[in-house]
Design brief:
Distance between the termini: 29 Å
CATH class: Mainly Beta
Number of domains: 1
Structural class: mainly beta
Number of strands: 11
Strand order of the largest sheet: 1-2-3-4-5-6-7-8-9-10-11
CATH architecture: Beta Barrel
Length: 211
């Protein structure tokens, strides 16, 4: 286990991205299950351009979901995003605010002990008076360690715009997680985010809480 953690700690040294392109995301995901059908999703993401202290984005998202059977969920939600974008002029930054409405469908399946999750999300984005749409597809894989609370996590997510350039970005991620109990788990991982013509890398620290 120690060798695996060391690999993740030193991954940034082998990345092709410049050091200034290595960011840090602190993420909290919460889920409140009201009954066997209805749930409340909520999350907060604090994203830095660097390892800490230079805020790139604050994202707050919530939504109401409805379970379809035991493996699928439909959800409608709202997100608020505050971005601090560099303008390229003497390191000046401009604040951009976005209000986002989204609909998503999640379905889960198991292949032996391997857990798969498919998420389809459609977003309507209101950005400083501009309206845009975007489609996202997420494939996540969790593989538990034998007789342990640790697990490995992988995902790939592609973003497609509804107008203009169709390709928006792609995220690929790998990480190590630990389940404290049935309600709380923590995950640390490394994500590469590819845009048109450039890429950025992030260290992700995530907390998941079901209550």
């Amino acid at each position: 286990m120690k060798k695996v953690l060391l690999i993740f700690l030193f991954l940034p040294l082998f990345s092709s991205a410049q050091q200034s392109d290595l960011g840090n995301w602190l993420i909290y995901f919460g889920n409140k299950q009201f009954n066997e059908k209805w749930n409340l999703h909520h999350e907060i993401q604090y994203r830095n351009y660097n390892l800490i202290g230079d805020m790139e984005q604050l994202l707050i998202r919530t939504g109401i979901g409805y379970n379809i059977g035991s493996k699928s969920n439909l959800l409608v939600g709202y997100g608020y995003i505050n971005s601090e974008n560099y303008t390229g002029i003497s390191n000046a930054q401009a604040t951009v605010q976005e209000h986002r409405i989204y609909q998503q469908f999640i379905t889960k399946q198991n292949i032996g002990t391997v857990a798969l999750q498919h998420r389809y999300r459609f977003e309507q984005r209101f950005i400083e008076g501009d309206f845009r749409t975007r489609f996202r597809y997420f494939l996540g894989i969790n593989i538990p360690f034998k007789e342990s609370n640790y697990y490995t996590s992988f995902y790939n997510e592609i973003f497609l715009n509804g107008d203009g350039n169709v390709f928006d970005r792609n995220r690929i991620y790998s990480g190590i997680g630990y389940r404290f109990n049935s309600k709380v788990r923590f995950e640390f991982g490394y994500m590469s985010q590819v845009f048109q013509g450039f890429s950025r890398d992030q260290l992700n620290f995530m907390t998941f809480y079901n209550f």
